[in-house]
Amino acid sequence: MLKLAWRNIWRNKGRSAITIAAVMFCVIFAVVLRSFQIGVWENMTHEIVANNFGYLQLHQKGFWADQTLDNSLELASVNEQIFLDHPDVKGLIPRIESFSLVSTGEGTKGTLVMGIDPQRELPGLQLDQFLVQGSTFAPDDKSVVVAEGLAKFFNLSIGDTLLFIGQGYHGASAYGRYPVVGIARMRNPELNKQLVLMPFKEAQFMYNCVGRATTLVVDLEEGASYKQVNQELLAAIGLSALELLSWEQLFPEIIQTIEADMAGGQIFISILYVIISFVLLGTVIMMVAERQREFGILVSIGMRKSKLAMVTVMENLILTMGGALLGMAIVKPVQFYFKYNPIDLSGQMREAVERFNFEPKLHTTTSFMININHGSIIFLIGSLVSLYAVWKIMTLNPVKSMRS
Amino acid sequence: MSKTVIEVKDLFKVYEGPVPVKAVNGISLTIKEGEFTALKGPSGCGKTTLLNMLGGLDYPTSGSILVGGNDITSLGENELIDFRLRNIGFVFQAYNLIPVLSATENVSFIMLLQNRPKEEREDRARQLLQSVGLTGKEDKRPGELSGGQQQRVAVARALASKPQFVLADEPTANLDSESTANLLDIMLKLNKEEGMTFVFATHDDRVINRARRVVAISDGKVVSDLSK
Ligand SMILES: Nc1ncnc2c1ncn2[C@@H]1O[C@H](COP(=O)(O)OP(=O)(O)OP(=O)(O)O)[C@@H](O)[C@H]1O
Ligand SMILES: [Mg+2]
Q1: Which of A19, A212, B55, B197 is the most exposed place for a label (fewest CB within 10 A)?
Q2: A300 touching B, CB under 8 A?
Q3: pLDDT recorded at residue A38
Q4: What's the confidence (pLDDT) of residue B226?
Q5: HSE of A332 in the Cβ direction (CA atoms, 13 Å)?
């Protein structure tokens, strides 16, 4: 019986080729589209999360909802060893994030102040990578690095002095005067307009919060599953006065944007699926019409309809399966190619993307799940479509079909 | 006194429509084992309709068809399919064969449906193809055979299932004289040697002349029944 199905495949090579090609291209197209879409987001989130904010952040409980120094945490209250004991944790990176009015001779502006230790920081804050002028600071220095946009605003050059006026821990005033030693280009355009970076210790001092930090970024090993680490750490420390938040909890709006974008892509792919369903249905209708007489003869000489239907479905499944597998296989190198050789965006797209702080490149994801998913969806469509043949065979009247 | 294979009683088939057509209009007929019978008559007289009902391909409007004493008009669809598989060999007018299977495979296919063992299928297929004079053409596909050769494969296939009788609807309609004579020789030989019962629907004189019993039908009724 399998032989009959197999022989039938070779019988109308055109039809078989159409079926295989349609399924194959549909899989390739859907997967490529999806890979780019997911790849771009993967890349973007990686950029934002892995390079700047970290996958996990530890705060005093309530800090994320109300980001003031009063909600900072006491470093001594955190048992760092518990974190270091976890194999996927490289360390804790302390930060102080607050606001200050900054003035120079030219004017005054509200700024975001970050106290960091560039040597311990995530890649996006390793300042020496982003300097456009001057140098970075050492942990014990009393100087600042200013984001490029802000430097332009104040028309700053290296050696100028900034005056800080703000509010420190528990209502204390926070004053400071620091020379600018470097100007850095921040990838994030918002930060680039308003960020001032200073040594972590100096920030603690200026904000009157020695021994405290607003944020401890949990620095993870490359490739670690932050979800799993999050759960394991939560279990290990049994947080009471602290909150350990994943990037999804920190930035739910990113997730929403991604989901909205995915839904848009889904519609496009659905349309593709509808088209492919009709193409496949067309080939099945073609086949049934072509074999009317033969079906009639087979049933007349004593082949049960269910058996005939099975052979016919088998034939179709071999075709769609072949197309799906072929598509899944062919698209694999394409995914890899564009992951490592992303498409450079140009023109307006480039500007738009750059404005939002992302690399103007289209990456793909190489996750094989996408191939499996789309491969099986299309295989399923193929199976559903072959139900037409089943229906035609089950309602076949041998006398009528042989007269045609 | 040979045994009765088919017994038809008061058979009617009416095709409903704006003008109902009484394609078979009260036929009673008995076919005995070993007969070589031609149903003849003008186009539209009801030969195919009658033959289809004898073969369990179509249900009569009324009347009964007894095959080996069992009324086949009361069988359900799948029972009827299995019945055909076990009891009836079919030869149709043309394009009888499965185009993707070789001559041998076409003949063994029906035995495969009967779940016969592989060896038996292959032996019998070869033997039958030999007896219809197709030795050497076993592996040819229908498309590579002439019309007459295809009909001979169809006859071999009809016999492969060891049926009680063979029904053939205008088996020679598409054949030239030589092929027709050849096909008839073969069927007569099988009829004599194996005692196989044949019933033809035909208006081909070449067939009618060689049949041993000729039943003439007109307007759905038997008008004469001559045995030689
Ligand atoms: N499915 C059908 N619906 C309506 N009328 C039909 C149907 N099948 C056959 N008929 C009619 O029944 C009558 C007998 O047809 P049938 O095919 O049995 O004739 P026949 O003797 O085999 O003719 P031919 O020699 O041309 O093959 C004809 O008038 C035909 O038009
Ligand atoms: Mg006819």
Answers
A1: A212
A2: yes
A3: 79
A4: 87
A5: 10
Among the partner residues B84, B96, B100, nearest to A11 by beta-carbon distance? B100
d(CA A201, CA A100): 17
Average pLDDT over all residues of chain A: 86
Beta bridge partners of residue A164, listed in sequence order: A102, A176
Domain that holds residue B103: 4-227
Residue nearest to atom 7 of ligand 1 (CA): B15
pLDDT at A128: 82
Q: How far apart (Å, rounded) are the C-alpha atoms in residues B221 and A104?
A: 118
Residue-by-residue DSSP string for A309-372:
HHHHHHHHHHHHHHHHHHHHHHHHHHHHHHHHSPEEP-HHHHHHHHHTT--SEE-----HHHHH
Half-sphere exposure of A280 (CA within 13 A, CB side): 33
Nearest ligand to the CA of B40 is 1
Q: Does B52 touch chain A (CB under 8 A)?
A: yes
Q: What angle do CA A361, A365, A370 make, to 5 degrees?
A: 140
Would you call B84 and A301 a contact, using CB atoms and an 8 Å cutoff? yes
Blockwise average pLDDT, block size 10, chain A, 404 residues = 72 82 86 80 79 90 91 89 90 93 88 92 85 92 94 92 92 91 86 92 93 93 86 81 89 82 83 89 90 92 93 88 87 80 66 59 71 82 91 91 76
Residue of the CA atom closest to atom 11 of ligand 1? B23
CA distance linking residue A215 with residue A72, whole number of Å: 7
Closest CA to A125 of A53, A218, A201: A53
Instruction: Please provide the distance, in angstroms rounded to a whole number, between the alpha carbons at the two ends of chain A.
Output: 26
Interface test with B, best of A8, A301, A307 (most B CBs within 10 A): A301
For chain B, which residues score pLDDT lower than 70? 1
Per-residue model confidence (pLDDT) at position A349: 58
Rounded Cα–Cα distance for residues B150 and A107 (Å): 101
Site to substitute for ligand 1 among B14, B22, B24, B45, most atoms within 8 A of C-beta: B45
* Pocket mutation for ligand 1, best pick of B12, B15, B53 (most atoms within 8 Å of C-beta): B15
Number of domains present in the structure of chain B: 1
Q: How far apart are the CA of B48 and the centre of ligand 2, in A?
A: 4
Give the nearest partner residue to A300 out of B57, B95, B98, using CB atoms.
B57
pLDDT at B18: 92
The helix (run of H) or strand (run of E) holding residue B20 is: none
